[in-house]
Amino acid sequence: MISSAFAQSAAGGAGGFSLQGLLPFVLIFIIFYFLLIRPQQKRVKQHKLMVENLKRGNKVLTAGGILGVISKANEGSETVSVEISKDVIVDVARQMISEVRGEEKLKSAPEKPKIKSKAKK
């Protein structure tokens, strides 16, 4: 019932292991490593180093978009205290600090110069 040509073609296709079939997958993995995996590992390492070196007075940007100045950073603590406005201090997880903008403190709004009026008498 089964033709002999059909049966022979199925058996003939089951050849041995070939490195040429594996080569495209190896090349794809190498490309992914250098374009995706390695740069991501560098970013993670830089972020970890930045979070470990946070100190009082650093101007930071949180992952939520809040800009503030670190007012208290205890080494070994999971959180830092960030002053986001005058006398407004919030605790933020260290890992949620996305960027250190500088070491200078935030400048408050400049005060308007007081104009002294000279009254003539």
Poorly predicted segments: 105-110
In DSSP terms, counting alpha (H) and pi (I) runs of 4 or more, how many helices?
A: 2
Q: Name the average pLDDT.
A: 81
Using the CA coordinates, give the radius of gyration: 32 Å
CATH classification, class level of the domain at 23-102:
Mainly Beta
CA(first)-CA(last) distance: 127 Å
Briefly note the structural class of the backbone: alpha+beta
Strand order of the largest sheet: 4-3-2-1-5
Oligomeric assembly: single chain
Q: Strand-residue fraction?
A: 15-25%
Helix and strand topology:
Blueprint: H1 4-12, H2 19-52, E1 59-62, E2 67-72, E3 79-85, E4 88-93, E5 97-102
Antiparallel strand pairs: 1-2, 1-5, 2-3, 3-4
Structural summary, described in words:
The protein has 121 residues and is α+β, with helices and mostly antiparallel strands. The protein has a domain at 23-102: SH3 type barrels (Roll). The chain has two helices and five strands, in the order H-H-E-E-E-E-E. It has helices at residues 4-12, 19-52; strands at residues 59-62, 67-72, 79-85, 88-93, 97-102. It has a five-stranded antiparallel beta sheet with strand order 4-3-2-1-5. A hairpin with a 4-residue loop joins strand 1 (59-62) and strand 2 (67-72). The longest helix is centred in the N-terminal third of the chain and has 34 residues, at 19-52. It is elongated, with a radius of gyration of 32 Å. 7% of the residues are buried. Mean pLDDT is 81; it is low at 105-110.
